[in-house]
Structures are given as C-alpha cells and as structure tokens.
Amino acid sequence: MRGITKEFPGVTALSEVDLTVKAGAIHAICGENGAGKSTLMKVLSGVYPHGDYSGDILFDGHACEFKDIRASERAGIAIIHQELALVPYLSIAENVFLGNEQSRFGVIGWDQTLIEAQALLDRVGLRESPQTRVADIGVGKQQLVEIAKALSKKVRLLILDEPTAALNDSDSRHLLDLIVDLREHGITSIIISHKLNEVMHVADTITILRDGRTIETIAVNDDLAEDRIVRGMVGRDLTHRFPPRADREIGDIAFSVSNWTVLHPIDQHRKVVDDVSLNVRAGEIVGIAGLMGAGRTELAMSVFGRTYGKYVSGKVFKGDREISTRTVSDAIRNGVAYATEDRKHLGLNLMDSIAQSITLPSLRKISRRGVVNQHEEAGVGERFRASMRIKASSVSAVTGKLSGGNQQKVVLSKWLFTDPDVLILDEPTRGIDVGAKYEIYTIINELAARGKAVLVISSELPELLGICDRIYTLSQGRLTGEVAQADATQETLMRHMMKGRA
Amino acid sequence: MTTTVEQSSQKPEAGQQPGEASPTPPGLRERVSSFLMSHVRQSGMVVALAAIVLLFQVWTGGILLKPLNVTNIVQQNGYILVLAIGMVVVIISGHIDLSVGSIAGFIGAMSGVLMVRNDMPWLLAVGLCVGIGALIGAWQGFWIAYVGIPSFIVTLGGMLVFRGATQYLLEGQSIAPMPHGLEQVSSGFLPEMGTNAVYHWPTVILGAVIMVAAVVVQIRRRRSQLRYGQEVSATPLFVAKCAAIVAALAVFTLLLASYRGVPIVGIILVVLTLIYAFVMRNTVLGRQVYAVGGNSAAARLSGIRNQRVTLLVFVNMGVLAAIAGLLFAARLNSATPQAGINFELEAIAAAFIGGASSSGGVGTVFGAIVGGLVLGVLNNGMSIMGIGSDVQQVIKGLVLLAAVGFDVYNKRKGGR
Q: In order of start, what are the domains of chain A with their CATH numbers?
C-alpha cells in the first residue's frame, strides 16, 4: 500500500501511509486507538471503495481497485473484524459458506457443505460438529469459524483485527498457533493487536502507526524490546506503564460482601458464584483476578442491583452496617457504583452527549421538582471534561463518536458524579490504548487517595499487579486465593486462578 | 516508509486522537455553516413543511392559506396531532403502539354511551373517558413492561380487542348528536369580545402574548447559556431565528383572527405540545424515556427503573388516545364504530416524518407535530385540488419514505 490517504469529514484518518507486507509473513500493525489501523485495513479490504481514498494498493504486483469487499475477497484478501460477523442461529457449516454456498443452480448441496466444512474445521483445529449452532460455542471457537470461513474463500492474505481481545489465554494461544501454521502453508496474515507480547511472539515484522501516519516498520528479533514499540506508538518513552503508587492511607474495611452465592439464570443447578466473601478498605485498590467464566462479572453485577443471576444470597456491608443493593437505585443510594465491562452495550447510551451520559444516574441532583437544569448539567459535564481530561470538541459531543479511552473516562465520570464510596470497575482498560490506560490508572489511584474503596476486575495480570494493593482470585465461582501486592506474581496468581480446574 | 523526523518534532500527549486535537476558533462563516449542518435534521422538516405550504398555496390558487381553510386544517388534524405527541414518546422509548386508533374509537363510543344513552354530564363523562384511556394504557403497558411481550404484539392484540369492543358498545350503530358542550370543544372558537372588527381581538392579543413569550424564552435561554460558558449561535443568526419565529406566529395569528379566531382545538393542541415538549426536554422523566429507548441495558445499570418508565409511557399514550377519541367524536358530533380506523398509522407516520428513529432514543415532540402538519397540509391541499384519495395515499406513502430516507442519508453522511 503506497501513500494511502483517507479523510472523513473534518478528520484526516490516514495520511500518506505506506505499508509493505512480504508474502508468507505475519505482519503486525500496532498503534494507539485512533491511530488509523482499522481504517487502513478497511481500505485494504475494500470496505472503503476505491476512489474513497487516495493512494495505491498493490497486491502480488498488480494495482488493485476494490469497489467492495467481494472484490477484495475474489482477489484473496479476507478481513476478520473485531466484532464477529457470524449469524448466531445458523450452524457452523452454514456460517462458513455464508454468501459462498456450496450449491448447484441455487440449490444447496448439503453433503458437500458438511464435508467441506468438516475439512476446514479440521484445518483450523476446531473440534465441533459442523452442524452445531454458532450461538452454542464460545467466542474463541467462533473466531476459528471465522478463519475457516476465510479459508473457504481461498484466502491468501488474512487480516485479523484484534483477534484475541475477547479470548482467554488458552484460546488466544491456539489462535496464534493457527496463524503461524497458516504461514507455513503460504498464507500471509496482518494482525492488529494491542497485546504486545502476542505480537512479539508471532509476528515477523511490525509496522507502527500513529496519528494516521506510518512511524516505522521493524523486523522482530530477539533484541527487540516491548518498550521500543510502545515508544513508537505514543511518541515518548513510557518508562513506567503504571503510575507510581502514592502513599495512601488505607483505612478500615469500607465495603464487604459475605457468603455471596448466585445461581445461573437459566441453568439453576449451577452456582456461578459460590459462597464468596471479600472486603475492601477505604483507600484501598483491590483486584479480582480470574479466567473467563470464573464468575467475576457475575459477582459484581449480582451485587450491583441483582442485575445478574437468580436466587442471589449473601450479605453486603458498608463498614459494619448491612446495606441493601437489591435494585440499582438502592446500590447507588448506598454509595456503590459499578462501571461495566462492556462500555458500548451496557455502559453508555451512544446517542447521548457527554454531559447527559454523566448525569444520567444522578439526574435528581441537578433537577428541581423533576425539571432538569440543563445549564447546570453542562457545567457538570465541563467540570469532568476538565478534571478527567476527556478529549472532545464539547460536552455536547455524542459519546458514540469518542475513542474507547475517552468513553471510559465518561463512564468513570458518570459514576463519580453519583459520589460513591465504593467503586467496582470491570475491565476498566479493555480495548484502550497504552497512553489512555496510564491516565485511567492515574484516575484510579487518585480515587483511592481520596479514600474511596476500589475493586478492579481485570483479565490482564500485569495491570492488577501494577495498580492493586491486594488481589483476590476466583475460579469456577469460588474464591481461591487472596494475595497481597508484595507477594503477588503472575505465576502465583495464575496458580490460584487455575485451582479446581480439570 | 516514513522517516522518523516527525516523531521528534511532535510529541502528542498520551491518548491524543487525530481530529480531536485542540480546535482552532472557527470563523463566522464556518460557524454559520456548522450551525446549519448541525440543525439540518431539526430544521429540515420545518423547511419541507414551509415548502409544501408554499407549493399548495400556489397550486390551490391561494385557497390553502385562506383564514377559513387554516382553521379547517387545525380542526381536521387536531386528533391526529394529539396522537402523534403520544406516539413519538412511545417511539422514543423504543416501542410502537398500533392500538391507538382502536382505543380512540373505543373511547369515542364510550363517550357516546355515557353522554347520550345515559345522560351523564359531559364534563364528568370526559373525565371518566380519560381515566379509562389511562387504564387501557396501563393494561397494555403491564404486558409490555413487566411480562416482556413485544409492544408490537401487545398493541396489535389491543387493536383487535378495542375495535371489537367499540362495535360491541355501539351495537354497530352510530350515536348522535353529542352534547353541545363537547361539540364546541372541537368546532368552537375563543369567544368574541367587544365590537365585531376586522380582526378577532382576543386572538390577536393571545398571539401577541405568545410572540413576546417566545422571544423572551429564547433570549433567556441564550443568556443562561452564555452565563454557563456554552457555545451559542452567532448574534445575527439568533436575531434571524427570533424574527422568523415572530413572523410565522404573526402570520398565523392574523390568519386565524381574520376568520373566527383561535379554534379551541388549537389551544388544546398548543398547550399539549408545550407541556410534552417541556417534559421530554427538561424533566428527569423525559430524560429517562430517552435513556431507556437509547440503550435500555445501560439505563437499567444507571439506576433507572425501565419497567416503570415503559408503563408510564403507555399510560400516557392511553390518555392521549382517549383525548383524541373524544376530539374526533366531538368533531363528527357522533360516536361511530368506524371512528379511529388507521389513526395509528397516521400518528406513526407523523412521528417518523418528524425525525424519530424506529430503533428508539431519538425524536422530538416538536418534530412529530411538524410531521403531522406535513401530512395534514398534504391531505388538505390535495383535497382542495380535487385529487382522489387513491392518489393521495400513494403520495403520502412516498413522502414518508422520502422523509425517513433523507434522515437515514443524513445520518450516514454525519456518521463514522
């Protein structure tokens, strides 16, 4: 790709970007959110048709002018988006051949479909029947179905946008192995990823984008340090990926949950959370570690207004006083806040402005006799925009157009405005770039320094080690460990997180 | 490959995004164009309405804006506009209500039974009817909000149930005439005062008061926006906007005043519009309706009681459907089994033409009124021109498609 420039109204997303990918290589693209990685890949795969951008695309030495995705697929380029494009209620086989049905005169040949699908599933190492519904398999396996789908189209260049973002460690490893395996079979891959260790592990070459420009392209070898890539991404040395721990006064137990048990909403024989007791002190940051399905989010949501599960039992205390968190409004009134894992679907109304999003849970605070004072609302928005350093043209900007990091800051602002004593943050930095992560960590630190009790749920162990004072581990709904920061290493945590697993 | 020279010259802060960098203060021309851009969705339909009015004014040889006809338009469309107000709220909350026509018919029938067959004082009967409307809304809202049946299904059922109930109540026959008091609500005017001059004075005075109030509200809003340090539109634009509002109100007032004055329906309509526009824009409840429609999961996790909000939205729809039914019965001066057929479709069309989104969370009361007026003027204008109802329906259908298409096109252009 040579000199690619793509403009959106008011924004230049890509300017004169060059990218050269060698055939049969795994090429990683790194950059902060908004650096233009996904846009570049959308140009390459024909999502943005020829003429919508300027510059040239050369594939196998031929200039390409894709007018849509089908055209790029015909040329052998397939893209797998971050949000998977599978139809949940169709079978794996139907999904693999969706839009490319094995048919004669429009009549589907089911035998051929199933046989070919099985062959593709074997190739990607997915041990499921091709007739299984996609809705019934996990995200990791769905990702493999996507790859099988790409392979069915005789793909030669596979583009993966954040393929492991939603996967657990073992699924991620399997996926990365598969990509390496495909390379042996001559399939070129481009991976966009935030996970530097993975990139370093599989990629042959890394191109760094920043602010819509190519910064550099580096060959991966043993001497290459992660810091070098991070430096390229943010344009400055990130000697500390975590803010220094301020001397915080850790007070008495501010919040505790005792003997908390939650049943699965559909399968009521399953205890999703099993007799969990934990506590957080004022001014303390406590982490909750666990693999996917360990029950971390389920624990938090069931505590916060019973928004998950059935037959919830157990008690919640603030200090020594038992409080009710039966409904979300009870929880908020008692000073508990929960920032969800999924910003776009559960955290924000993406049609709302920044100011309106922040005030939503606390509208009563800025209204009199049910009438909202919109000027005060805008003032509140401005205050948080300044204090949280939310980057947006104004507080009336719509949250749907912000980057992930800024959306997360809006979510945090929203909960801070409810003036909570206890904050439960679920994956507070998921899908956020390195620089914004640092800012979020700083904010979390400040909150603790102000005497708030903070619970952080995270899948990234370095993150928990970097910011928490104490870490609980969950496995299969049970509390399996409690480790002080000083004693914690990734290995000890992982051991606890795997306890009781087959 | 790009060199690394730029790297050292610019050091963006962590998390800085392209395009979100510190904005330079825009010039006047940019501000004007950005104002127009950001208001294109809002003002698009107002402009379209004005264009349609002008077109028909020409095509009907000036009949459209004759005082008598303007009065007619208001009286003919009152009940649809009342329904449109309720419907846009339902649509903002992410639902739909197909039963409002049948409910309006049922309430009309009920009013006939109460007032005419049972000689109940008409005001008492009106109160009772509105109460029944609220109950019907609560009944449907219960199934939608608390049981979780899709509103499309519940209200499709309601549409059949209340149509049948209407026919049952009336035994297939019309009841007429309605009491004089009720009839006056639909066809009456603000009473005459003093001498019979060229203009209907109470109307002129009322119009003047509204004009002053509108300008005062605009100025106060702008002042407090400035006080809170928010961006406001440039002064010449603001003056132009105020002038346009005053001019439109003045023309409308004089038109009505040179016939028999403000119809009572008109007053009811204006009051309802103002109340609902205020509730949706400025109150906690209104904000909660937008939140539930925009992202119900996020609303729930923000402590909003979604089910209660949904129930209230449908209770409100029931009340407004009852009012519409009463207005229609008053206008026909009879309760008929056919009353209210297809009203729901007109109301839904009005809401969508006025910019509401079928996925919820978007829409305004003012927009729905404008949408309803677009349909009303089309109806009226084409009838004056003697265009058959067959062609009228085709044209109205195409207008709905075009309006929503325009909206979708705009959104796509503004999005990403």
A: 2-234 (3.40.50.300), 250-335+420-502 (3.40.50.300), 350-419 (no CATH)
